[in-house]
Amino acid sequence: MPDPIDWGYAAPYLLAAFLAGYLLGSVPFGLVVTRLAGLGDLRKIGSGNIGTTNVLRTGRRDLVAATLLLDAGKGAVAVLLAASYGPDTALMAALGAVLGHLFPVWLKFRGGKGVATTLGVLLALAWPVGLAACATWLLVALVVRISSAAGLVATALSPLWAWLIREDLQLVQMCLILAALVWLRHWQNIGRLIRGREPKIGRKT
């Protein structure tokens, strides 16, 4: 049985990890890279979202790759920096990074959908679990050609992969929390999926 946490000692580190993760996660890379490329405000294109799927609607695959890597990377970096202080701080940084992406203070708390950042934090927390989640996303995307469906399935199955691969209850719980956040953020996509109106990958509308 693990030693009980001394909350009086650990709380400042956990809070610092969460805040640092939030600040890293809140950097809107999709918005940044499209503006640097001279494409204007990404929020006025397609769905108005700042994430990778909407960047794809610009037709610039180089910007899509940059946004994907940067959004996943910021989550991974937050976790890896916090991990030196222990697994609990790493988990708090992971939560902060995803919340930062979903609700960035710089954009009046209107952020992205969180799939890439969630995959990034999973790769940093437990790379085999992260790879399983990434493989799930890729498989679903190849079959149904719908990015939101791939993200929803990948995050929904991540707690299962965490349990089967690591048998780590804390990791499973974090995967559940992150999946719930991603699903809540996709509520409009879920409605369109149910009605059969969700755009396929590659469509500009």
Keywords for this structure?
10 helices, 205 residues, mainly alpha, 0% strand, globular
Sheet with the most strands, sense and barrel status: none
The end-to-end distance, rounded to whole angstroms, is: 53 Å
- The helical percent reads over 70%
Residue share in β-strands = under 5%
**What's the number of structural domains?**
1
Strand element count:
0
- Average pLDDT works out at 90
Kindly describe this structure.
The protein is mostly helical and 205 residues long. It has one domain. Helices cover 71% and strands 0% of the residues. The protein has ten helices and no strands. It has helices at residues 7-25, 29-36, 52-56, 61-83, 87-102, 115-125, 127-144, 147-166, 169-185, 187-195. Helix 4 packs antiparallel against helix 5, helix 4 crosses helix 6 (115-125) and helix 6 (115-125) packs antiparallel against helix 9. It is globular, with a radius of gyration of 17 Å. The N and C termini lie far apart (53 Å). 47% of the residues are buried. The model has no long low-confidence stretch (mean pLDDT 90).
